[in-house]
Each structure stands twice: as C-alpha cells, then as structure tokens.
Amino acid sequence: MTDAPVRNRARRIEDARSRLEHDADLWLATADAGLPWLIPLSFHWTGEAVLMATIRRSATYRNLSQGGGVRIALGHTRDVVMIDGEVELPQDLPQTDADQTAAAAGLDPRTDPTAAFLRVVPRRVQAWRNVAELDERTIMRDGQWLHDQR
Q1: Domain coordinates in residue numbering, the chain
Q2: 89-136 pLDDT, tens per residue?
Q3: Shortest CA distance to 80 belongs to which of 134, 30, 41?
Q4: Residues 144, 124: contact at Cβ < 8 Å?
Q5: What torsion do the CA atoms of 115, 101, 38, 139 make, to the nearest 10 degrees?
Q6: N or C terminus: fewer CB in 10 A for the chain?
Q7: 10 Å Cβ neighbour count for 53?
Q8: Beta bridge partners of 41
Q9: What is the C-alpha separation between 99 and 102, in angstroms, rounded?
Q10: Nearest-angstrom CA–CA distance, 37 and 83
C-alpha cells in the first residue's frame, strides 16, 4: 500500500467520510495530568459527531469529564484518519442516535446506570496513507471540511 497513488484532498475527504460511515471500531485516546490512555471502542457516526458509550468509572470517562482532550484514530498505519474534537458527555441523545450507539457499543447508557454516552464533534481531521500524503494531510480545520481550498 505504500505505492498507492497520492490522493487529492477531495478524495481523502471522501475516504474519511466513508470510514466514519462504515467502520465499526476506533481507537480513542485521552489523557490526564499523567499518562495517556488509549482504548478501542465501537461507534456510530451521525454525519456531524462520533458517538460512543463507556463505563463511568473508566479512565476514559474520568479524563473526559475533567476536560481532557481527545484524539480518535480510524484505520491502520498505512491508511489512517486522525480526529481531534470537542467532547460532550450528553445525558440524552435523540432516540435513533441513542439506539444506534447502544447497538454499536453493546452497552446502553439509558438502561445501565454505570454507563455514559460520549459525543465527539470533529474540529480537525487528518488523513494519509504514506509519506507522500503527509504535507496536505489536514482535511478539516475548525470543524470545516477543506475540500481543495488552498
């Protein structure tokens, strides 16, 4: 895959959106004042936000509830999508989103008092497959897809 042709920004956006719509799992990284914390989670993409569920007593939930940052990774090292976003810990979600997130996670915060929803709104998205794509890897900035703007 290192010999894959270099994609333009529009194609990377299309590929990143496809991953968000079709992939089932992601890596979620958080941090506190000490060590970073990385976990795999299943997710649901709404078209605007990445929705997940986790246990309230987890390091992930604790880090996020204390205002820590978040980074999401989709794909593998030779076709990666990295997302930095704003985190929300919603008490409720629209019915369809809650149902789809619970189904993806195998955990329903509406019926499990130890669980909680996580909502990440992307602010920056980067995508690359190889070194040739690193220079223009940013495909979203300040929550806006860049398309082929220079």
Answers
A1: 9-145
A2: 999 899 999 999 999 999 899 999 999 999 999 999 999 998 889 988
A3: 134
A4: no
A5: -140
A6: C
A7: 25
A8: 26
A9: 5
A10: 16
d(CA 82, CA 122): 10
**What mean pLDDT comes out for the span 62-84?**
92
| Cα dist from 119 to 2, 6, 8, 60, whole Å | 33, 32, 29, 13
Three-class HEC string of 42-76: ECEECCCCEEEEEECCCHHHHHHHCCCCEEEEEEE
* CATH number for domain 9-145, candidates 2.30.130.40, 2.30.110.10, 3.30.70.560, 3.90.550.10: 2.30.110.10
AA letter at 143? G
* Model pTM score: 0.91
